């Protein structure tokens, strides 16, 4: 069982389900040639896909095109179902930095066959995750800069202000599909700039007011 900690406190949570939002930044939808969805695109990664800050990514042998997606992570601290947008932020215990690593070749193949693309998203080590800052440390989660460098070169540089659904809307919508429980994590989607990572790459993510995350590709 994987645990995440709230920085500067003794509080930790066992990671539950990891619910991820796809297609939440318009420029990223455009770069992949996808359609703007009416309903949120939602998928889950298993808790076993998490690796800590400084961890090593293992790209499975059945993929030759693993992409980085840097995302703001929400840690749920209070369970709820059908949560209103007004109450949504009271369910967030903290904010963290996450990578939603994606086997783009496998995803495209499965999408093309009309099959679920879970295998492209949930593989072991597919979710590098930082520790969390307390929710109160972030003034407005819908207006913070999000930057990913690979080997020192900026690949993704956006702001959560570009999200099509706000943090409050995401929590409200996801909680209509899934009961949210303490320790669940929500990944809120990625801005444009996704690209392939290869053996030896060093990934460094940074989200304003939230923190940093590093990972190396084996
Ligand atoms: Mg993603």
Written description of the protein model:
The structure is a single chain. The protein is mainly β. It has one domain: Alpha-Beta Complex (Fumarylacetoacetate hydrolase, domain 2). It has helices at 26-31, 104-112, 167-177; strands spanning 3-5, 12-14, 18-22, 41-45, 50-52, 55-57, 66-67, 70-76, 92-99, 102-103, 127-129, 133-134, 145-150, 153-159, 185-187, 196-197, 202-207, 211-217. Strands 4-3-15-8-9-12 form a six-stranded mixed beta sheet, covered by helices on one side. The chain is globular. The mean pLDDT is 96. Bound molecules: magnesium ion. The site of magnesium ion (MG) has 7 residues, from β3.
SSE layout and pairings?
Elements: E1 3-5, E2 12-14, E3 18-22, H1 26-31, E4 41-45, E5 50-52, E6 55-57, E7 66-67, E8 70-76, E9 92-99, E10 102-103, H2 104-112, E11 127-129, E12 133-134, E13 145-150, E14 153-159, H3 167-177, E15 185-187, E16 196-197, E17 202-207, E18 211-217
Parallel strand pairs: 3-15, 5-11, 6-18
Antiparallel strand pairs: 1-2, 3-4, 7-10, 7-16, 8-9, 8-15, 9-12, 13-14, 13-17, 17-18
The protein binds magnesium ion (MG).
The site of magnesium ion has 7 residues, from strand 3.
């Amino acid at each position: 069982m994987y645990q995440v900690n709230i920085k500067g406190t003794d509080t930790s949570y066992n990671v539950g389900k990891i619910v991820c939002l796809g297609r939440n930044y318009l420029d990223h939808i455009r770069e992949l040639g996808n359609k703007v969805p009416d309903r949120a695109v939602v998928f889950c990664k298993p808790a076993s896909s998490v690796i800590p800050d400084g961890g090593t990514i293992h790209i499975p042998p059945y993929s030759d095109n693993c992409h980085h997606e840097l995302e703001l992570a929400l840690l749920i601290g209070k369970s709820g179902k059908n949560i209103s947008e007004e109450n949504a932020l009271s369910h967030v215990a903290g904010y963290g930095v996450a990578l939603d690593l994606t086997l783009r070749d496998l995803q495209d193949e499965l999408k093309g066959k009309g099959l679920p693309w879970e295998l492209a998203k949930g593989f072991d080590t597919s979710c590098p995750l930082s520790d969390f800052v307390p929710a109160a440390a972030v003034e407005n989660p819908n207006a913070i800069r999000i930057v990913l460098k690979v080997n020192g070169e900026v690949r993704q540089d956006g702001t959560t202000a570009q999200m099509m659904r706000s943090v409050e809307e995401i929590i409200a919508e996801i909680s209509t599909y899934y009961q949210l429980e303490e320790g669940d994590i929500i990944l809120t989607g990625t801005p444009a700039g996704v690209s392939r990572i290869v053996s030896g790459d060093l990934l460094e993510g940074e989200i304003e007011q939230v923190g940093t995350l590093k990972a190396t590709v084996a």
